Amino acid sequence: MSSESAGPILSVQGLKKHFPVRAGRRIRGVRPRVKAVDGVDFHIMEGETLGLVGESGCGKTTVGRLILRLIDPTAGKIVFEGRDVSDIPTAGLMEYRRQVQIIFQDPYSSLNPRMAVGKAIAEPLISHGLAGKHEAFARAMELLAFMGLSEHHFHRYPHEFSGGQRQRIGIARALSLRPRLIVADEPVSALDVSIQAQIINLLEEIRAGFGMTYLFISHDLGVVRHISDRVAVMYLGRVVELAGTEALFEKPLHPYTEALLSAVPVTHPRERRKRILLKGDVPSPLGLPPGCAFHTRCHYAMAVCRNQRPEFRETEPGRLAACHLLDKPST
């Protein structure tokens, strides 16, 4: 997959989100803070899909919520089409949210159980003043048909649909405003494997037909490899590697990426892959270790890793990583 784009549609620069801990005692007079996102940098080109992966709790969903401005960043910039939207007041976010939509992980809880699905799809158009009721309902009918559903589904309620059908309805609702960027937050993780493939194929059809741009958040590396142009790998609130999809899967540069990929099941009966088992527990985001946050579990860790945080930098053309191993001169 390749994107033919003139420039980044979204750029994230030094993005941070620290949540204060309300309970518990202060440390040296200061309440501890959970560093859910702690300095994230990446961009998304128009028309491409950027996969964002990592273990549960690494901060990838928080990044998506920050981009949507569902929560406010502690620091950093979110630049959308050349405009910094990180400090827009809540009252001025309506136009931005028309351009940036979300597909939720749970297709059932994301829909109002008391609202017919046709009205749920039409509601954003009416709320944003983009169409009258009749026109909005007609648009909802078109989107239902595009999603493989029919007119008689228009007046049905979410509980009358399967999980895959509900996710199609959620996608239709996200598309109703004709956004430029969609944040897909684990959009297939709650679905059966066969239905996952259908939804992924549908997202690719939408990308081709609507020129859509995606931030695709997932822990499923197989799905990410299939749909993404580039992949960013997160660990404890930071991006540790970013590269083109095939380059990253063929030759990971960061030890954490290497360990993640070693756990992906192989499909060919003759293919063998050495499994890398990470030792120790994931450090608490309340008290990250000094230096590289991964050094407590890394089997390549050196003395410098324990004391100095590695710089997230370009190590090869189009590839960025944060690892002291890449600083060593070749011999």
Structure at a glance:
With 331 residues, the chain is an alpha/beta fold. It contains ten helices and twelve strands. It has a single domain, classed as Rossmann fold (3-Layer(aba) Sandwich).
Describe the fold and architecture.
29% of the residues lie in helices and 22% in strands. The protein is of the alpha/beta class. The chain has a single domain (8-114, 157-327), classed as 3-Layer(aba) Sandwich (Rossmann fold). The protein has an eight-stranded mixed β-sheet, sandwiched between helices. A hairpin with a 2-residue loop joins strand 11 (313-316) and strand 12. Helix 3 packs across helix 4 (133-146), helix 3 (117-127) packs parallel to helix 5 and helix 4 (133-146) packs across helix 5. It starts with 7 loop residues before the first strand and ends in a 10-residue tail after the last strand. The relative contact order is 0.14.
What is the first-to-last residue Cα distance? 36 Å
- Sketch the major β-sheet: 8 strands, mixed
CATH superfamily heading:
P-loop containing nucleotide triphosphate hydrolases
CATH structural class: Alpha Beta
**Secondary-structure element series:** EEEHEEHEHHHEHEHEEHHHEE
DSSP E strands, number: 12
Cα radius of gyration in angstroms: 21 Å
CATH architectural label: 3-Layer(aba) Sandwich
Strand order of the largest sheet: 6-7-8-3-9-10-12-11
Q: What proportion of the residues form beta strands (DSSP E)?
A: 15-25%
Tally of helical segments:
10
SS-based class? alpha/beta
Q: Give the % helix.
A: 25-40%
Envelope shape: globular
Count of distinct structural domains: 1
